[in-house]
Fold this sequence. Notes:
Elements: E1 3-6, E2 9-14, E3 21-26, E4 31-34, E5 42-48, E6 51-59, E7 61-68, E8 78-80, E9 87-94, E10 97-103, E11 109-115, E12 121-123, E13 131-137, E14 140-145, E15 152-157, E16 166-167, E17 175-181, E18 184-189, E19 196-201, E20 206-209, E21 217-223, E22 226-231, E23 240-245, E24 251-252, E25 268-269
Antiparallel strand pairs: 1-2, 2-3, 2-25, 3-4, 5-6, 6-7, 7-8, 9-10, 10-11, 11-12, 13-14, 14-15, 15-16, 17-18, 18-19, 19-20, 21-22, 22-23, 23-24
Amino acid sequence: RKLDVSGDLIVWQDDRHGDFDVYLYDRTADREIRLTNAPGDQINPAISGRRIVWEDHRQGDGDIFLCEYDRQARTCPEQRLTSNADEQILPDISETRVVWVNISQSGVTDLILRNLATGQTTQLTNDPAAQVHPAISGSGVVWEDNRNDNWDVYFYDDEHPEQGAVAITQEVEDQRYPDISGMEIVWQDHRHGNWDIYRYNRQKSLEQRITTSREHQTHPSVSEGRIVWADERNRKRNSDIFLYDGDQKPAKIQPVDPVPPPAAPPSLAFWPLNPRLIPAGTIVTVPLIAHYAD
């Protein structure tokens, strides 16, 4: 993830100074702030409320850092969450919970969950296969898991740890890039020979296929029942952004007078596929997100 949104705050990774730093744009204050100015790359930021986490390579391998934005002081004092010899990458945050991928020195990937309110750290997986791309909403965490020799979507509820990791999908083909919002889980699914968007409602134990186009639909994001994704049904080389809103048919997003992003040189690195939705369900779109870079 190279761009994330929460309310009126947008964060992204930016290489205008040679290596990647994390930047924040405050729409209410109409202000851009550089959050990191350290050696190496700071990448994959995620935001929830005023808290921002990112993957930090100032020490060479990856660590997870956090800061809490103070609008009045225009500062975001950083805090290092990890410092062991393993590599920590791909963080996500929801309120006071942070999840990330831990890569051991022997190359084994597992998921770690930190509760900032209690200070408790929990290892969610302990399997020699790969577990990657976690997403979190409240106490619920989803990720893609290769323990069955293909990619499946798994779920963990931090409020019910006795249930452990629960398989949401167990198809022969791959299910990848999950996202979660409350009771809704979405992912891209290859069971029909191309990538489609699926969703699963935990409360109803109901799985639903959202797209049926023969072209690829990928990198979904969900917020309060609204699902967006990158869709190739109209073009081979470029993707459009489509929205599914409950009972409606999927529709291409056509922004009217979109708010322009903050001024930045061409190196500004917005993630080209996966738009994020703010908690209230408002969709934030940036024109660059609908185009694949060559």
